[in-house]
């Protein structure tokens, strides 16, 4: 099982003396975190895409290219690319260039997007939410496989024997579908035979198991048994003790949901009592001591057979020093045990 980290680059005010960290600092720290992740032996690092002033990164491939220049082995992915509002030709060109810069380490997680801002920003109608994604996903898959493309669709100008350049170093750029928990999204990925990157942000792990079982059943029925893969993406906070992890995580977690809600207005602040109740051995974010984190990962692997765990450890303005300390704990006390298991 591969283990990695991802960031959404939110600019929370927690952890910075009540002041929101600036985008320049956030991006510099993101590059430094990726370097630490590689040194710790992690397999993959992802960068999210948002188009709001409370997030630092709207162009993940640029940041990933900077990371590529400072690393040599860790794989690099978006988390996610909002394909619904993008031009698939441009997306392919950017990721193919990233693949060349990184010597074949680029991947992409394509999603429909939880936030609505990209749709009016790029001239897309939110009412076409599903149709946009279906068409652009199909076109990207074609571009990924062919250096010359003839194509016609609804939302983009047609292509007539168009040259798609440059070509990636890898035969094709690995493409995952981001799934937020919708059975329809899981089944879409399964029918296409594409790997599923499943966001597990809360709730019981039994629900994750059901969704993964549905994905595998539909994929196998469609004849894609050999290409089905599952990644679990979620929040992680690790400390030497369970209490320390909860005490460290709560201010950042609650502030993130307050400041960075997908809606136009701030979301409610989760109470400490509700936060504590949400974290059990078989539910909620990955929060706890090294032993607890190992148990939660092992349980999810048993339930889902997941191929990857990709965790966010910088949510809500966690200071860089704490992020570095958590990576060290993961490297020394969690990853060796998980790999042995």
Helix content: 40-55%
Number of strands: 12
Question: Would you list the SSEs in sequence order as H and E?
Answer: EHEHEEHEHHEEEHEHEHHEHEH
Distance between the termini: 10 Å
Structural class: alpha/beta
Basic shape: globular
Largest sheet: 8 strands, parallel, barrel
Tally of individual helices: 11
- Can you tell me the CATH class? Alpha Beta
Q: Averaging pLDDT over every residue, what do you get? A: 95
Query: Any low-confidence stretches, pLDDT <50, length ≥5?
Result: none
CATH architecture assignment name: Alpha-Beta Barrel
CATH H-level superfamily: Luciferase-like domain
What's a concise summary of this model?
The protein is of the alpha/beta class and 341 residues long. It contains eleven helices and twelve strands. The chain has a single domain, classed as Luciferase-like domain (TIM Barrel).
What features would you describe in this structure?
The structure is a single chain. The chain has 341 residues and is α/β, with parallel strands linked by helices. 44% of the residues lie in helices and 17% in strands. Strands 1-2-3-5-8-9-10-12 form an eight-stranded parallel beta barrel, surrounded by nine helices. It has a two-stranded antiparallel sheet with strand order 6-7. α1 runs parallel beside α11 and α2 (60-70) packs parallel to α3. It starts with a strand and ends with a helix. The model has no long low-confidence stretch (mean pLDDT 95).
């Amino acid at each position: 099982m591969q283990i990695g980290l991802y960031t959404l680059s939110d600019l929370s005010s927690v952890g910075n003396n009540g002041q929101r960290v600036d985008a320049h600092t956030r991006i510099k720290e993101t590059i430094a975190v990726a370097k630490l992740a590689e040194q710790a032996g992690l397999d993959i690092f992802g960068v999210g895409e948002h188009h709001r002033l409370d997030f630092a990164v709207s162009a993940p491939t640029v940041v990933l290219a900077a990371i590529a220049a400072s690393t040599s082995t860790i794989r690099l992915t978006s988390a996610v690319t909002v394909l619904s509002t993008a031009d698939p030709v441009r997306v392919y060109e950017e990721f193919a260039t990233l693949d060349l810069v990184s010597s074949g380490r680029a991947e992409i997680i394509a999603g429909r997007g939880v936030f609505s801002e990209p749709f009016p920003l790029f001239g897309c109608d939110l009412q076409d939410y599903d149709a946009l994604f279906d068409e652009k996903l199909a076109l990207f898959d074609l571009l990924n496989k062919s250096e010359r493309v003839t194509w016609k669709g609804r939302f983009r100008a047609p292509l007539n024997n168009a040259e798609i350049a440059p070509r990636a170093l890898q035969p094709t750029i690995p493409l995952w579908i981001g799934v937020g928990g919708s059975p329809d999204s899981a089944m879409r990925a399964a029918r296409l035979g594409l790997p599923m990157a499943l966001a597990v942000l809360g709730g019981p792990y039994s629900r994750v198991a059901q969704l993964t079982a549905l994905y595998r059943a539909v994929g196998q029925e469609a004849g894609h048994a050999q290409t089905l893969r599952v990644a679990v993406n979620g929040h992680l906070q690790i400390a030497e003790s369970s209490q320390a992890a909860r005490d460290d995580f709560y201010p950042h977690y609650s502030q993130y949901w307050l400041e960075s809600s997908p809606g136009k207005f701030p979301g409610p602040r989760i109470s400490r009592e509700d936060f504590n109740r949400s974290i059990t051995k078989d539910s909620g974010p990955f929060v706890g001591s090294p032993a607890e984190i190992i148990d939660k990962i092992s349980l999810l692997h048993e339930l889902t057979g997941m191929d990857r765990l990709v965790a966010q450890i910088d949510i809500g303005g966690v200071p860089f020093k704490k992020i570095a300390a958590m990576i060290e704990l993961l490297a020394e006390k969690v990853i060796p045990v998980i790999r042995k298991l």
